[in-house]
Fold this protein.
Amino acid sequence: MTEYRDGFLQANGLRLHYVEWGSGSNPPLLLLHGFGNQAHMWDGFAATVSGRYHVYALDLRGHGDSDHAERYGDDENLADVKATVDQLGLTRFSLVGFSMGGGAALSFAAGAPQRIERLVLVDRPPAGGDQAGRARMANVLAQAKTSFASRDEALAYVRLANPKRPEELVQQSLRYAFREQPDGSYRLKYDEKLRQRFLSSSTPTPDLWKLLDAITCPTLVVRGGNSDILTAEVAEQMVRRLPNAKLEVVPDAGHNVAQDNPEQFNRLVDAFLP
């Protein structure tokens, strides 16, 4: 695995964790993960691009090694991203966001287009996503566990949650998404309140379609070929709406594109970034 460095910063009353790779003399690239993920989901991609980018991956609030919070939502994620890039001194940078992180990336790029060199939106529709896909995710989350009696039980849960995930990434998920307890059990790091928020019928779904018009940088929309969250029709509408965009479809991948088919995902996004 490519060598990485851990960092922490204070943002909006929280201690946020980030991981970085590559030389500080390279142009910056910020990576934002999806719901229930954490910064190390990008390890393989970072290894692909860290020779020419100074790569940062942020643990969004309530995820990974960042603090849990009283409040969660799209506005809070965006505020944390703004504080993070300002503290890291990223005046102009490229930005990649997956799912929940894609919403924050889209909002940031629309609000500060002069700061974004290139934008990659990974399987993130501008609105709530396909109803069938959201229902599937809600069903998975409703049955999800957060604590596991043993290492083997935790590994089995990771494999069940995403059967396409290569074994190397299964082991990586155990290392970074779980915390081993003194009694040998394992517990997921992300805040249980996040799951409750996703399942709540009162949680608003933002409509970000209007933001697409404000994005001026070259943009890559990435869709998993089997995704039930970002449909082919919506992905094509996004590309038509964005001023300077192209669409890439990763075969043999569902919503978790970068983990379902990391080789193809890394190749396509690497080719888009200058």
About this structure: The first strand starts at residue 5 and ends at 11.
